[in-house]
Amino acid sequence: MALKSNLRLKASKRLLYVSLIIIIGGFLRFWELDKDSYWLDEGASLFTVNRSLTEMIEFEPNPPLFNIVLHYWIKLFGIKEQFTRLLPALFSLISLFFVFKLAKRLFYYPVALGTTLIFALSPYQIFYAQELRTYSLLFLLTMISMYYLIRLIDENLWKQKSIYIIVTLCLLLTHIYGWFVFLTQFLWIVYIKRKLDKDWLIVFIAIFILFLPYLAYFIPTISKISGHFWIAKPGIIHFFGNAVPVSGSVPLFLFYALLICILFFLWYRHKNSKSIKINQPVKFLLLWIIITYLVPFVLSLFVTPFFLERYLIVTAFPIVVIFVYLIELLAAQKIKTIIYSLFILLSLFEIAQDIRQPTREPWRDMALDLKAKAKTNDIFIVAAGFCIDNIFQFYSDSLANIQIGIDTEDIKENIWHDKIQDHISSDQNCIWLILSHFNSNEFLLTEYFNSRHQYVKQIDYPHRDLFGRNIVNLKVRKYKNKLLNSD
């Protein structure tokens, strides 16, 4: 009886620790969801879901599941930031539960607890938990799919197969990186089984058959991406540099890098020890890293660039679990306490920085300034022009001013002069040049206005990015219309 009582007490304590970590993680994810305004990509999500389901699937190049869910979520809860961002925050909160379950399934309780703690306090995870995009759903479905894959290997029950098939199908309908997760799973099954047996073959074929209705939309999307894409070709600096935001901050990245070097040195010294052998879970996690991190990088070099830090959310779990596993394996208890304490301090410091400053382009603040300062006969020139539909009109819908968009294509085709001259007249008092995501063409446009109109001032709208830098992706230049003075 005493033994059973002690076991129940130990189990209760373990459950309490996990629950507290998940509750803290949930609090950080739900804190001030409306602090930041929507930015360009989030605005694109809102612009996309304001359509019929068929139009959404045809319009959006990414797989449609998140937008479909968001479409109905907005119908229920509205379009304000604090309500729409509840959806990705919920996905991220639920994922913490499966982070713990999967880590425990692969290893043991201390590894699962440490992994869950890191994910609960991760500034990177919290950022995308509050982003109205598909990434938190992508991470959640990756966790659930991987968890049921491991369960299927051990249990092979049709209930588990059904859940795995449905969740993995949803993963493939969420983001193209879902295919790298699926490839990891396929290769792992081939590796441990030496060949595909009948049961697994049925499972994989079922997923492909269920995906077929979307294939007619998916193939043109792949063709479009293969032809051209907006992401720049990565270099070796991106291979390592993208690990910085995934870590949560530059200090956290340096902290992890130093610890990993020390831990691998200790592992190398003890590699002949039976307890330090690379076991099956570690092999699985290494395969996961290679397929979801290295393979997209190589394809981005030689096919089409699509290697971005936000997509690497699917790689975060195996990296963190291996890191925690090495800590549990090689570090003494006092060293573990110091490591986790430093991690908590660095993470909370970074989270505090993010709370104090905007972490996304402040379009809402910019629109409020224009509403307060612009007159009804002023004109807005927005470059890049796609920002008008994607985000600017969302916050400036009450402004009746003329809005003209200038895109890169207008520069290439040399028609931008005509677009501007056709709309600027002596009736307008001021010209407001709104610059965002126009990159190298900004100089050409500002020189044009500087030479033809009276420059008044520039207002910068900075925000803090995932590297901890204060950057300006949104700025407004005000000009007095010289045509007005000439009259």
Q: What does this protein structure show overall?
A:
With 487 residues, this protein is an alpha/beta fold. The chain folds into two domains: 17-356, no CATH class; 363-486. Helices cover 67% and strands 7% of the residues. The protein is built from 24 helices and seven strands. The relative contact order is 0.10.
What is the strand arrangement across the widest sheet?
A: 2-1-3-7-4
Total number of helices: 24
Query: What would you report as the Rg, rounded to the nearest angstrom?
Result: 25 Å
Structural class: alpha/beta
On the 0 to 100 scale, the average pLDDT is: 88
Query: Total strand count, please?
Result: 7
* DSSP helix fraction: 55-70%
List the uncertain runs.
none
Q: Give a short account of the largest sheet.
A: 5 strands, mixed
Q: What's the N-to-C terminus distance? A: 98 Å
Count of all domains: 2
Provide the descriptors you would attach to this structure in a database record:
single chain; 2 domains; two-stranded antiparallel sheet; 487 residues; 5-stranded mixed beta sheet; alpha/beta; globular; 24 helices
Question: Helices and strands in order, then pairings?
Answer:
Elements: H1 2-30, H2 40-49, H3 53-59, H4 65-77, H5 81-84, H6 86-106, H7 109-121, H8 123-129, H9 135-155, H10 158-172, H11 178-193, H12 198-227, H13 236-241, H14 243-247, H15 250-269, H16 280-302, H17 316-330, H18 333-356, H19 363-373, E1 379-383, H20 386-395, E2 402-406, H21 408-412, H22 416-421, E3 430-435, H23 441-452, E4 454-460, E5 463-464, E6 470-471, E7 475-480, H24 482-486
Parallel strand pairs: 1-2, 1-3
Antiparallel strand pairs: 3-7, 4-7, 5-6
Helix pairs in contact: 1-6, 1-7, 2-4, 2-20, 6-7, 6-8, 6-9, 7-17, 9-10, 9-11, 10-12, 11-16, 15-17, 16-17
